[in-house]
Amino acid sequence: MEELKILILDDEKDYREGIEEYLSNQGFTVFKAAKPSDGLNILKNITCDIVVLDVKLPEMNGIQVLKRIKQLYPLIEVIMITGHGDMDSVIESLRSGASDFFTKPFRLVDLKRAIERTRRFIDLQNRVNDLQDRHNHLVSSILEREGDVIIGNSAAINKIFELMEKVAKTDDTSVLITGDCGTGKELVARGIHALSSRKREPFFDVNCGSIPDNLFESEFFGHNKGAFTGAIRNKPGFLETSGKGTLFLDEVCEMPKHMQTKLLRVLEGKTFRRVGSNHEIAFRARVISATNKNIENAVKNNELREDLLFRLNTFHIHLPTLKERKEDIPLLIDHFMRISIAKFGKTYCRKVDPAVYDALLEYEFTGNVRELEHMIEEALIMCDESVLRIEHFKNLKVTQKKVKFDSLNLNQLVIKEKEMIRQALNQAKKNKTKAAQLLNISRSALNRKLSKYHIE
Ligand SMILES: Nc1ncnc2c1ncn2[C@@H]1O[C@H](COP(=O)(O)OP(=O)(O)OP(=O)(O)O)[C@@H](O)[C@H]1O
Ligand SMILES: [Mg+2]
Questions:
Q1: Secondary structure element (H or E) that encloses residue 280, with its range
Q2: E strand or H helix at 318, and its extent?
Q3: Diameter of the chain by CA atoms?
Q4: pLDDT tens column, 168-226
Q5: Distance of CA 318 to CAs 178, 304, 407, Å?
Q6: What is the per-residue pLDDT across 301-327, written as a single tens digit (0 to 9) for each?
């Protein structure tokens, strides 16, 4: 813990100066005031940890000052100096939030002990706060995990699974995920984390586009109490809270340039300091970053430092658009149906009209999987029957079913045709003219097909 700042508020000059001299010699930073108004003024400008407060004061009594301090600065600990035998003041001080007290006349060594007890209490409080931050983060990441399955069976998404598995095994490699919006970059980042040996550590996601410029440094590096106005307690930053887990830098191109330089230094040196502290902390997390921008352009346009890009981009994964993996659309529709039915309790809706699959297969998605997810969700809200239909969608039009000349369909067509020819020949007892009539084709056309398919 950094050195404690202590304010002494006592109108008796001898006490005030005696205490100041003693505590300064013990290595504490000490401020002093004779009147409550002066003391409160000091607290306004300096973030003190402890106030040593006399009960008998001019302007207002010590208990009132205590209440004011606790109201304005709840994290400051107050040690009261009470008159000998003044039990009422002692009880009221403790009830009003004082952390300790001792009675006049006192030995300076007793004061020092009271300060040390309070310091231990402050240390403990800081640790509890840090743990609370970590706990909150873990809980929210567990809750978010529910929708974390990556659906798809196309060649394109299988390639992505393969890359994810490979890079997850390397413990420390930085990964850059690119791809249009809504293609699943965050999902893939979470997937890599879940597949890696860091899976029990935090997955800490930071949206670089949503942090105000002036807060970036203290949010990333953390700060110590008093490092700047408003820094009322020690606070770990993202670099610290991500621990030995994964730090996910989403929309990384939105990071201000001055922060990019600082982040680069952390990634190179693997250490950092909280704002307002000289203590070096090791950076242990794996960094995964994501952007929907074209990275070459981002470097050219001076949005992303090239040297930072090299650090972030040790392993690159580019996600396909939904258009590039249309085969996955039906699977995704079924997946989002299951999720939305559970979410809205619409268990009576059991089927999706085939026309919906056809229409969504032809739909021009600009927001990729996210857009599809929202469309299904919205449509299901509108649906009060057992089948989800085109009419439940806001912007979906029936498509003219196109015959698809892919190899699978052609094969099926050939199989069907052979089967029909065989059936016709059986029915016509091998009479080709009759069989041709049954098939509604000419005798010469039948002959051509028979030789093509080698049917006797
Ligand atoms: N393959 C997939 N299987 C299931 N759900 C998916 C898949 N890909 C994306 N999603 C879902 O689509 C939504 C968008 O995904 P995600 O947030 O990971 O995309 P993104 O690329 O980070 O988007 P953006 O560029 O807008 O930040 C999420 O709800 C996610 O769960
Ligand atoms: Mg995202």
A1: strand 280-282
A2: strand 315-318
A3: 129
A4: 999 899 999 999 999 999 999 999 999 999 998 999 999 999 998 888 999 999 998 88
A5: 5, 18, 28
A6: 999 999 999 999 999 999 999 999 999
* H/E segment holding residue 112: helix 108-144
176 neighbors 312 (Cβ within 8 angstroms): yes
Which atom of ligand 1 is nearest to 335's Cα? 4
Is 186 near ligand 1, meaning CB less than 6 Å away? yes
Q: What percent of the chain has pLDDT over 70?
A: 95
Phi, psi of 238 (to 5 degrees): -60, -40
Distance CA 208, CA 251 (A): 6
The answer to whether 331 and 371 have CB atoms below 8 angstroms apart is: no
Give, for ligand 1, the residue of 186, 192, 207, 337 to mutate: max count of ligand atoms closer than 8 Å to Cβ: 186
- Please give the structure tokens belonging to residue 109: 């060594």
As a dihedral over the C-alpha atoms of residue 315, residue 320, residue 321, residue 324, rounded to 10 degrees, the angle is: 170
Q: Is the CB of 156 under 6 A from ligand 1?
A: no
Please state the φ and ψ torsions of residue 220, each to the nearest 5 degrees: -75, -50
**Residue 180 CB less than 6 A away from ligand 1:** no
In a 10 Å sphere around its CB, with 0-12 CB exposed, 13-18 middle and 19+ buried, how is residue 25 labelled? Answer: exposed
Query: Hey, what domains does the chain have and what are their CATH numbers?
Result: 5-122 (3.40.50.2300), 155-318 (3.40.50.300), 322-392 (1.10.8.60), 407-452 (1.10.10)
| 324-335 tens-digit pLDDT | 999 999 999 999
